[in-house]
Amino acid sequence: MYDDEDTYLGRRRLAFIDYNPFEDKRISPKSLSDRSSLPEIPEPIHDAVRRAKAISGHLEQSLLFEIAGILDTAYRDKTSLIASKSKEFEQSPYDHIPANESDHLEAFLCKSGDMIPGEERALYFCVLTYSLAGEVLNTLYPSDEYIRYTADEIDFLRMHRPDYDPRQITESNRQTALSLTVEALRAVARAEGSHREFVGMKSERRKVSSSGGSNRGKSYEPLKLFILREWKNNYSSHTNSSAAELIAAKFKKHLPSELQPFEDSLKIPANHKARKKRFEEWIGLFKRGELDINID
User: 70 Cβ partners below 8 Å, 6+ apart?
Assistant: First the structure.
C-alpha cells in the first residue's frame, strides 16, 4: 500500500504506516489484559482512542489511509513531520512543533461546506485522533519502515545534533508524545461534539427526507434504488462523498440503461454537483437506517 512512489505520504498518512488502531495492542486494545506494558506511552492516549472507537466503529485500514490523505492535502503546508525546517527548530528543545491539528481540520471542514456531510465530520476527527496516536508510537518506537520514509528528516536533525538516534527514548521524545496526546484529546473532543450535533439533528432530517408528499417520493424511487444498489455493490468501502462522486459520474453522458424505462418520470438533478449532493444525502440516510427502502 505504501510503496507507490506517486503516493504522497504526508504526516497523517505516515502515522498509519505500521499502526492500525483496531489491531494494535499498544494503545487501547479490545481487551485491557492485551495491552502492552509500555510506560513511555502517555496514559490519556488510551482514553482518546477508546472514545474515538465508540464514535467511528471499526474502520478498514484503506479508509483510514484515504481520509488521512484528505487531511494531508487539506493542510499539507501547515504541519511538519518531525520539526519545522526553520530557525524555530534551533530555538526549540523538542523534535516537534505543535501544529494545532484540530483547528486546521475545523477550518477545512467549514470551508468544505456541504461537500463533507455532517455524519462524516465526526469521522474525520476520529481519524485525526487515530493518526495522532500512531504518531505517538512512531515517536517513541519507530519501526524500520518509518525510519526509511523519514530519512531526510532524520538527516536534518543530525545536522544539528550529530548524536541523534531516532530509536532512543529521550525526554524530548516523551514531551513530543505528550504534546501529540494533548492534540489527540482535543481531536476526540471535537469528534464527540460533531457527533452530538449530528445526532441532535436526526429527527429534523427525518422529517425533511419524508416531506413533499407520496407522489414526490414515488418519482424518486427507481433512482434511489439504482443509487443505493450501486453503492452497496461497488462503493460501500468508500466515504459517502467519494461514493456519490463516482456514482454521479455515471450520469454525465447518458442515463444508465437500468433507469431508461423510467426516463419520463424521473426527477434527476440537472448538474453533476447537485446530483452528487443528492446521492450523498441518500447514501447517508440509508446507512443510518432513515430510508424505508429495500434494495435487495
Answer: 124
